[in-house]
Amino acid sequence: MTDLVVVGTGLFGLTVAERMAEQGRKVLMLDRRDHLGGNAYSETDPDTGIEVHRYGAHLFHTSNERVWEYVNRFTAFTSYVHRVYTTHRGEVFPMPINLGTINQFFRSAHGPDAARALVREQAAELGGKRPENLDEQGVSLIGRPLYEAFIQGYTAKQWQTDPRELPASIISRLPVRYTYDNRYFNDTHEGLPVGGYTAWLERMADHPNIEVRLSTDFFDPSQPVSKSAVVGQVPVVYTGPVDRYFDDAEGALSWRTLDFEREVLPVGDFQGTPVMNYADPEVPYTRILEFRHFHPEREYTSDKTVIVREYSRFAERGDEPYYPVNTAADRDRLKRYRELMADEPSVHFGGRLGTYQYLDMHMAIGSALSMVENKLTA
Ligand code: FAD
Ligand code: UDP
């Protein structure tokens, strides 16, 4: 007897399954991939022995004490602190934009107040107007010259959408600091799972009340727990793409996918840092990840290294949908999908794909904990 079907074994699905299993419910999890863990999955690179995050760099960070306490039940975290650099016209600058970036860019030696005044002057074209899209938000935060150098080209490569059509919120999560602090995240807690992501994710599913079926698509009517067989019979938590659930009835939502190009190099250290962004539009990739640097505490081989170049493009049917693009047309469609969801009371939509929202890992976990409390066990 199954009490709950969870579609998707990412952090949202795993959190729901683990919490429900702890309360004595029998949970059946499905994933169409051949491994669990969703996009946070990682594996050991066969040529170098270095842990590689298969779906792009994943850095755990949170200020939510409840989430931090919860994740620490399954893994300890290293003291890793994320820092990013960006290459612009052959020169390397620290990101996110801070006093170091500003002074290097303008070849100046401003203190915080002078730098603030300079940026304010360079953002004056907005005339105090509330920024309504990414372009205006960028100019208002850092002024036009810094925006054009570090944000405009990178964003064009990453989103392939006119920045005036993108929501301001995409870059609101990037801090701008008038100090030399170049930590990427502002959160209280940060780190990487000591034993790797997959060990953490597998531990969450390791419960006698949880069964996991991999390589199993919820929409494949030939398998016994398909949509047509279970909806209305057993409660379902669905964390796949919301438009796909409704067969694109309201039109396909736009998503962005990534292509990862892996290369093993015969050097101990390629770039001296885990993530190097490439701000200029002429460079076709957005960033290069060098995975050995995520775990300086590990003894990795010193004669080779693995790097991954990340390219971004619109997702076509059949591509992995990674980032909701969220244009005004998408938001209208989403509204109509929400109405359809309301007609499916036994299906609970969650996670990044199921709600069409940019959720970091800690947000996916936090919202899964709330769904368990407010909807599944209320
Ligand atoms: P997912 O992990 O996407 O899991 C959904 C699962 O559902 C998948 O395994 C999929 O195969 C499965 N599924 C879909 N359709 C079906 C179907 N029809 N049948 C069966 N199974 C199905 N977060 C951070 O906190 N820090 C970061 O640095 C960070 N970096 C990221 C970088 C990239 C490139 C991406 C894409 C995401 C990043 N994230 C990061 C976000 C993080 O991946 C998500 O927060 C987390 O994966 C959300 O989990 P989820 O369960 O909602 O979705
Ligand atoms: N961004 C940018 N330049 C950078 C880094 C980020 O323009 O060097 C913008 C870009 O639009 C990106 C957004 O800020 O989509 C959020 O950056 P983040 O690093 O959080 O993106 P993610 O890792 O989620 O793709």
TrEMBL record:
SUPFAM superfamilies: FAD-linked reductases, C-terminal domain (SSF54373), Nucleotide-binding domain (SSF51971). Pfam families: GLF (PF03275), NAD_binding_8 (PF13450). Residues 149-358 form the UDP-galactopyranose mutase C-terminal domain. Keywords: FAD, Flavoprotein, Isomerase. Its EC number is 5.4.99.9. Signal peptide: none annotated. Gene3D superfamilies: NAD(P)-binding Rossmann-like Domain. Its cofactor is FAD. It comes from the Bacteria. GO terms for molecular function: UDP-galactopyranose mutase activity. InterPro entries: UDP-GALP_mutase, UDP-GalPyranose_mutase_C. Belongs to the UDP-galactopyranose/dTDP-fucopyranose mutase family. This is UDP-galactopyranose mutase.
